[in-house]
Amino acid sequence: MSTSSYGFGGGMSANISTTQTTSTQQTGLTAAPNPASNAPTGPLIKDTSTQDFMTDVIEASKHTTILVDFWAPWCGPCKQLMPLLEKTVNEAKGRVKMVKLNIDDHPAIPGQMGIQSVPAVLAFKDGRPIDGFMGAQPESKIRSFIDKVGAEATPDPLDQATEQANELLDEGNTDQALQIFGAILQQKPDHIPAIIGLSKSFLALDELERARGVFDTLPEAAHKEKDVIALKASLDLAEQSADLGEIGELEAKLGENPDDNQARFDLAIALNGKNKREEAVDHLIMIIKRDRDWQEDGARKQLLQFFESWGVMDPASIYGRRQLSSILFS
After folding, report:
1. What does the pLDDT look like over 51-83, one tens digit per residue?
2. Which of 87, 170, 218, 312 is the most buried (most CB within 10 A)?
3. How confident is the model over 227-243, as a mean pLDDT?
4. 8 catalytically annotated
5. Domains of the chain, with CATH numbers?
6. What is the 3-state secondary structure (H, E, C) of the chain?
7. Catalytic residue among 29, 68, 78, 231, which?
8. Each residue of 151-164: pLDDT tens digit?
């Protein structure tokens, strides 16, 4: 057991005990870069807790510079700083990662480190804090800080492989993406981005049972992440669509009775399953225009689930929100 300490501006000091561990175990990785070490992977930005601090910060900082944002829900400057931090960390593209710690929910770590006011940001490298600042800062200062502490950081090979696989998946090269995600998981079975990617690959191939099976291996904590929420929505919609029958049958049923809201609702789900997103939006909008209270506002709720599945910046989401706003605020 060793103790690392660091002091920075304003007389603040930081002290934390770290357990030194080494790992020599390696496995082969085919169809993806073979990392030099079993480095931790995951999203660039995440929340942490007292229990997870050792893994998320101390161990992770042995591979990539980790910024720890100590914040509190009641802190106004924290709310100003956090989005700027997130923006600059994302733009750094892996040179640093960011971990957020709510000091109200998890007071032990900031207490041990002498954090007396928030916001406070510490940069960790090789298991110890190396620099930091207090208070809200302009974006230019944050960018300079990240350039300073993240200058020697290198992207994780498994993260690079995941990014490559996701690009292939977006381009429609599903089989190649599937192979890379599978190879990553042979190397690191709990690699959450690769689990998400593998499930999305099976979903793209209409192998819903396998997609759901892979999704179910995700830990409960991951279900709060945006990518996981979107994937779950996509899986739920695909499974709904699979139970509805052919689009032609639903269109014929609606043709016989254009006022049949349930048939129109089912058709919208089926169209989404065939990636005909704007058509799906149009049918739900028609139900909302005709009867907002149908099935306890069911059409609007379904439309919001579409948006969650597609993502905020998807053209169909933008189109759908515009149509919905024209109804709700007219």
Report:
1. 999 999 998 888 889 999 999 999 999 999 999
2. 218
3. 82
4. no
5. 2-149 (3.40.30.10), 157-242 (1.25.40.10), 247-328 (1.25.40.10)
6. CEEEEEEEHHHEEEEEEECCCCCCCCCCCCCCCCCCCCCCCCCCEEECCCCCHHHHHHHHHHCCEEEEEEECCCCHHHHHHHHHHHHHHHHCCCCEEEEEEECCCCCHHHHHHCCCCCCEEEEEECCEEEEEEECCCCHHHHHHHHHHHCCCCCCCHHHHHHHHHHHHHHCCCHHHHHHHHHHHHHHCCCCHHHHHHHHHHHHHCCCHHHHHHHHCCCCHHHHHCHHHHHHHHHHHHHHHHHCCCCHHHHHHHHHHCCCCHHHHHHHHHHHHHCCCHHHHHHHHHHHHHHCCCCCCCHHHHHHHHHHHHHCCCCHHHHHHHHHHHHHHCC
7. 78
8. 655 567 888 899 89
Q: Is residue 306 a contact partner of residue 316, using CB atoms and an 8 Å limit?
A: yes
pLDDT at 248: 81
Q: What letters, b where the CB count within 10 A reaches 16 and e where it falls short, cover 315-329?
A: ebbeebeebbeeeee
The token duo for 176 is 């190649």
Q: Write the pLDDT tens digit of every residue in 287-296.
A: 999 998 999 9
- Catalytic annotation, pick one of 29, 75, 85, 268: 75
Question: Residue 10 has what pLDDT?
Answer: 33
- Judging by beta carbons within 10 Å of its beta carbon (0-12, 13-18, 19+), is residue 83 exposed, middle or buried? exposed
Task: State the pLDDT confidence band at 247, using cuts at 50, 70 and 90.
Answer: confident
**What pTM does this model have?**
0.46
CA angle 50, 194, 225 (to 5 degrees): 45
Signed CA dihedral, 132, 138, 142, 145: sign only: negative
Question: Would you say residue 5 has pLDDT above 70?
Answer: no
75 classed as catalytic: yes
